[in-house]
Amino acid sequence: MVFVAPGADVSPDAVIGDGSKIWHLAQVRESAHLGAECIVGRGAYIGTGVRVGDRCKIQNYALVYEPAVLEDGVFVGPAVVFTNDTHPRAVTPDGTLKSADEWEAVGVTVRQGASIGARSVCVAPVEVGRWALVAAGSVVVNDVPDFALVAGVPARRIGWVGRAGVRLLPDGDEWVCPQTGERYAEADGTLREATTP
Question: What total number of domains does the chain contain?
Answer without folding.
Answer: 1
